[in-house]
Each structure stands twice: as C-alpha cells, then as structure tokens.
Specification:
The chain is an alpha/beta fold. The chain has two domains: 2-155, Glycogen Phosphorylase B (Rossmann fold, 3-Layer(aba) Sandwich); 171-331, Rossmann fold (3-Layer(aba) Sandwich). It is 38% helix and 16% strand. Helix 1 runs parallel beside helix 10 (274-281), helix 7 (208-220) packs parallel to helix 8 (235-242) and helix 7 (208-220) crosses helix 12 (320-331).
Length: 332
C-alpha cells in the first residue's frame, strides 16, 4: 500500500499528525508512506521510522508570486510537484490539513482513495471537494490527535488508544546543549522549568511580565532552575524575563537544538504553540496556557500535564499564582 499523508503546517499540527504514520506502519508493515509538508516543518519528519519519503512544497512562495516572472516560476513549481506526486502512484492520500491548498495537493496525488474530514470539520469547507471518503470523528475523539487518527477508519484500521510520535534525535545538537548547560551552571540533577514565551499569534502569548514574575516565584519557592527558550525576534523578551538572574537564557536553537533542550526539561510552561506540542510528544510534563484556542482539543497530549483555560479567551486572565501552582503540582 502506497500512502500519501498531506499535513503541511504548522509545527504543532505536524507533530499532532505523526501518530497517523506510526499507526499505519504498525498495522501495515508493508505500507510505503510519503509525507507532503512545507519546507519549514520538514525537519521534524527526519528519520521517522514509519515515513519512507518526504515531499516538500513551498505554497507560501507560490501564493506570494506577483510579478510575471515569479508567477511563471510558481506555475512551473506546481506542475513539477504534480508530476512528482503522480509518479509515486499512490493508492491512498490522507488529507489531515483540511484546507483548500491541502485539498488541491491531495487531488494532485491522483490516489483513487482520498480521505479527509467531513466538510463541517474542515478548516475550509471547500476541502471536501477534493476527497472521496469523508470522516466525521466520533464524539469521544476530543483531542486533535485522536481526530487525526479517526482518518484511519476508511482503511479498515482501528485507531490506537495512544498515539506514537517518534521525534528526531541529533547527536551534535545534544552535545551542544550539554555544553551550553554546563557553561550556564545547569546540572543534570537540577529540576529544570523551561519557559517558552513565544508564539506566532499574539493572542497565544502570555505577557512577558508574567513570565518574569513566574520565574522569580519559582526561584523564590525553590521549585527549580528556570530556563527561557526563544526563537527569531524573541531574544529581547527572553532577556527581559531572565533579567537579574530570574532565569537562564537557552542558547539559540534550531529544531534539533530545541528538541534537545526540551528533553532535559522537568516541566515546560507555554501557550498553544509548537514547543508545547513537541515537549508533550517527548513525554515532558507541560503546563499549557490557553486563551483563544481550546485546551480540550489542543492541550498537551497524554497524561501528567496541566492546562489552564482563560474563561474569557484572553491569556491575560491567567494569573501567575495559578501557573506556579500547576508547576509545583507537576514537580511534586
């Protein structure tokens, strides 16, 4: 069985869909699985034991084409992608994205069986035009991981009770993080509370002043050492949180480095963003902060986590004491 999984972005969403590949391979060891993904998210698929091939697309570049020259290049790129997907002769395509662009790519595969969500569950209802087996996840599938796993039912597969993720491991990144931790005075025996203040959407970010207050409280209560991870354009925020020794700043990281840092965490505090879902996939206990998105659907997957849902949809409504208490509960 030759299978295409279309899950393009974002990082947390791609992580959430990884158990689909694992479940197919577990049930059908002969399956050859290709994952269609945006270039930025492709590294998280590296060396996944269930994935034989990765087809990288750049829909952002295609959609941003404005000049005749770039439009022509985009059209050539789309045509080449279609030829490449058709050449793989897929038997099945599974669209776990549920929007228009993923629907088009699913159709490009030419797979005779194209599985997706029912229109009512798609991000863009037009997606259902490109699939021929449409799934309505059962009411019991409340978490998005379980909703993705429900896409297996048209294949005659029973979704597993617990999804398996398999994130990449990079020896050089692991060694670099060990060196950076040693230079910062962080020891392997330390209980390490990692704070992730960043998020792509502003309404998913807890205010930096509260992260700083949380860091100070964790230190004052002797709960553990505090480390702040940061991404592009977030260094100033990370420095403000760690000012005065309230927290140690993580070294600059790519995806492999971030995964290495998270593997060493005793607990992660973050909003609904990629690092939260990476940590949960690694089995790291998390405190998830949720405002505009649902903690039931998007919370850290698995047992042992804590989630705080702002009743008014605004992260500013979550206070420092509640988050500190959740951290203490996990560390206890």
């Amino acid at each position: 069985m030759n299978v295409a999984i279309v899950k393009l972005s974002a990082l947390g969403d791609v992580v959430h869909a990884l158990p689909v590949a694992s479940a197919i391979r577990a049930a059908r060891p002969d399956a050859r699985i290709t994952w269609v993904v945006e270039a930025r998210q492709a590294p998280v698929l590296r060396e996944h034991p269930a994935i034989a091939d990765v087809a990288i697309v750049d829909t952002r570049r295609w959609r941003r084409a404005r000049t005749p020259r770039r439009i022509s290049a985009a059209l050539r790129g789309v045509s080449a992608m279609r030829r490449g997907l058709r050449a793989r002769r897929f038997d099945v395509a599974i669209d776990a994205q549920g929007n228009l662009k993923s629907g088009v790519l699913t159709a490009m595969t030419g797979a005779p069986l194209r599985i997706g969500f029912a229109a009512a569950r798609c991000r863009e209802r037009a997606n259902a035009l490109f699939t021929n087996r449409r799934v309505m996840p059962p009411a019991a599938a409340q978490h998005v991981v379980d909703q993705y796993l429900a896409l297996l039912t048209p294949l005659g597969l029973t979704p597993p009770a617990r999804g398996e993720f398999h994130l990449p491991w990079n020896g050089a990144a692991e060694a670099a993080v060990d060196e950076a931790f040693g230079a910062a005075g962080l020891k392997s025996r330390d209980r390490l509370v990692v704070l992730n203040p960043g998020a792509a959407r502003p309404d998913k970010r807890w205010v930096p002043e509260r992260f700083r207050a949380l860091a100070e409280r964790i230190g004052r209560d002797g709960l553990g050492r505090v480390l702040v991870v940061w991404g592009p354009d977030e260094l100033a925020v990370a420095r403000a949180i760690g000012a005065g020794g309230a927290a140690v700043l993580a070294p600059p990281t790519d995806l492999d480095g971030l995964i290495a840092v998270l593997r060493r965490a005793s607990v992660l505090v973050a909003g609904d963003t990629g690092p939260l879902h990476l940590a949960a996939a690694l089995g790291v206990p998390c405190v998830g902060l949720f405002g505009p998105t649902s903690a039931v659907r998007n919370g850290p997957y698995g047992a042992g986590h804590r989630t705080l849902q702002a009743p008014d949809g605004r992260l500013a409504s979550i206070d420092v004491a509640a988050v500190s208490h959740a951290v203490a509960e996990i560390l206890a």
